[in-house]
Amino acid sequence: MTDDQIEKLIWGEIQKRDVTFSDMIGLPNQGVDPNPEEKTSLDKKRIRSNRFQETFGCDRMMELLCVGKYNPYDDRPPLKIPLQDLFSFWWNRCVEKDLVIEEVLDDLYQYFTEKMRPPEKEREQMDITIDFDRLSLLTTEIERAA
Predict the structure, then answer these.
(1) 50-92: per-residue pLDDT in tens?
(2) DSSP code, position 122
(3) Total structural domains in the chain?
(4) How many of the other CB atoms lie within 10 Å of CB of 146?
(5) In this structure, are residues 6 and 61 in contact, taking their beta carbons and an 8 Å threshold?
(6) How far is residue 127 from each of residues 24, 28, 124, 136, 139, measured CA to CA in Å?
(7) pTM of the entire predicted model
(8) 9 inside domain
(9) Max alpha carbon distance in the chain (Å)?
């Protein structure tokens, strides 16, 4: 899919479900005023529930783009848009590339630096074992001296 097709499909889903800006930023199970500019009728009469069940934006996008009925217990439902195309759309339209590239390159640098690190040499460790037989002899000698 092209970026334009993806954007058209997402806008279509938003319009089909009658999602407003208030739905996008409001909490689930919270009342949403679909026409906040309208001041003629009482606010309580215009209030309806949020169109989304989910709280976070990524979950709301899954809810919006899932194939069939949305199931909140399905972690990764099949989407109407292939992941490769979604990633391409995100890369072309949503991201500040310089910042992402910097993060990716930094992660790659750290990965390969760790792979190139020479193995740590084993250090000699002090013998910390206790010889209890010898310890009892020392206490006996201390008792005799006292």
Answers:
(1) 777 788 888 888 888 999 888 888 888 899 999 999 999 999 9
(2) P
(3) 1
(4) 5
(5) no
(6) 64, 62, 9, 19, 21
(7) 0.63
(8) yes
(9) 103
